[in-house]
């Protein structure tokens, strides 16, 4: 498979899962976009979830000018510096949806990052909340429901926080 084919498969999986999440999302709770990048997925989320509070986390914002969130909804800095105060301010279990796409070409670094972020992301998810990610996470109170989607195994990962958690 070429890198172009791989990118197309990844972007198709993202779009399909974002659309699926928008249809299956709890009506209450925050939406978090972790990793703004050029703003494509944020733009897709705000178009499909009008009226929802969407907070975006980015270390170094460089998105398309039309793809920035309104003032107060872009949190700039390292995730390990910005997520804990966000949890403190908005509370554990405040997110109905988290979309995270922050991987690099370094699989060892990606694995380490996912392992370190897992407890923070898990703390943010409300019962029944959904996490869509570009890699596997270790979240004991969440079920991996990736196989219940139509996305190829290992292409994208989907977690749902248990209602009793």
Structure report:
- The chain has 165 residues and is an alpha/beta fold.
- It has a single domain, classed as Vaccinia Virus protein VP39 (Rossmann fold, 3-Layer(aba) Sandwich).
- Helices cover 37% and strands 22% of the residues.
- The chain has a 7-stranded mixed beta sheet with strand order 3-2-1-4-5-7-6, with helices on both faces.
- β4, α4 and β5 form a beta-alpha-beta unit.
- The chain is globular and about 45 Å long.
Describe the structure in brief.
This protein has 165 residues and is α/β, with parallel strands linked by helices. The protein has helices spanning 3-24, 40-48, 79-90, 107-124, and strands spanning 30-34, 54-58, 74-76, 95-100, 125-133, 142-144, 157-161.
Please supply descriptive tags for the structure shown above.
Rossmann fold; 4 helices; 7 strands; single chain; globular; 37% helix; alpha/beta; 165 residues
Layout: helices, strands, pairs:
Layout: H1 3-24, E1 30-34, H2 40-48, E2 54-58, E3 74-76, H3 79-90, E4 95-100, H4 107-124, E5 125-133, E6 142-144, E7 157-161
Parallel strand pairs: 1-2, 1-4, 2-3, 4-5
Antiparallel strand pairs: 5-7, 6-7
Helix pairs in contact: 1-2, 3-4
